[in-house]
Amino acid sequence: MPADRRRRCLDLGCAVGRSAFEFGRWFDHVDGIDFSARFIQSGVRLQEGGEVLYEIPTEGELSTNRTISLGRLGLAEFGPRVLFMQGDACNLKPIFTDYDLVFAGNLIDRLYDPAVFLAGIRDRILPGGLLVITSPYTWLEEYTPKEKWLGGRREHGEPLTTFAGLVRLLEPAFELVHRQDVPFVIRETARKHQHSVAELTAWRRQERTSGNLG
What we know:
Elements: E1 8-12, H1 18-23, E2 29-34, H2 37-47, E3 52-59, E4 62-68, H3 70-73, E5 82-86, E6 99-105, H4 114-121, E7 125-135, E8 153-155, E9 158-160, H5 162-170, E10 174-189, E11 192-205
Parallel strand pairs: 1-2, 1-6, 2-5, 6-7
Antiparallel strand pairs: 3-4, 7-11, 8-9, 10-11
């Protein structure tokens, strides 16, 4: 992204804020939003120079305590660029607008109505700005009613992938500019890790839009 397009960034599903602080390296202002107030509180504590205590499982009911701070991560200078707020990605307040980049990291398959999210996000991105979505497409009914899954199901008897669902909802208002797999690992215990592969898609908002998103 050109330097003159690195003004405002929205990090949706930011959790405790690591990605939001990383975006602070490149953007003048970053809004970090998560549905969990507890996560947001941890991000604010880090931003204020404090340490966050957390536990990592080792085996069975045993765990190890760890602490982290922005200073230890080399991110302290970028903290002031981030504003954290609790919020709902499917029902964002009007103030969250005029972004050069909206990042939805491992979020789309945890929303109660992802199509509503996609329909509303277009007008919050400046023309030429980017929407970046990453997800392993792990659709579960405990998060999203099956009829609202973007993919991973059959439609009229034919298989519908999440990527195809994204294309249908985002084009022609957005142009797909990049697509790749992003492996990641989640620690379960000291000796067990969960390996997953997210798909990253980057979409550029068109100057003039019409069609699927209304």
